Amino acid sequence: MAGLDRESTFPYAPETWSQDEALEIAREEGLEMGSDHWEELQALQEYYSRKRDYAHISVRELHDALNEHFHDKGGIKYLYGLFPGGPIAQGCRLAGLEVPAGAVDRGFGSVV
């Protein structure tokens, strides 16, 4: 997916984000990016773009939105298989987004 037209593939991506940067972070974190990884990054970027006016992102609301978006594939449990560092914390790092407060919490299932 790297090298594709960023505007059409990742229309909600932060301006400073690049697929190459995401690939580098993934490599450093031991992830091999597949189409489902990229799909989650797109979902995170779109979610953040819709919440720009909010002072902060609710971890619970984001968790629920991801669970619903990926329901057909197994929801949040499926995403933990893709992102062992947590679909929110690790996913946000790869998507070029600020990790929301509370996302890195062993009780919430994320490990950094």
UniProtKB/TrEMBL annotation:
InterPro entries in alphabetical order: DsrC-like_C (IPR042072), DsrC-like_dom_sf (IPR025526), DsrC/TusE (IPR007453)
SUPFAM superfamilies according to UniProt: DsrC, the gamma subunit of dissimilatory sulfite reductase
Localisation per UniProt entry: Cytoplasm
One GO MF term: sulfur carrier activity
The keyword Cytoplasm is assigned to this record: yes
A Pfam family it matches: DsrC
Keyword Cytoplasm applies: yes
Keywords: Cytoplasm
Any one GO cellular component localisation term in the record: cytoplasm
GO biological process, one term: tRNA wobble position uridine thiolation
PANTHER family with a match to the protein in the record: SULFURTRANSFERASE TUSE
NCBIfam families xrefs: dsrC_tusE_dsvC
Record-stated family: Belongs to the DsrC/TusE family.
Full protein name: DsrC family protein
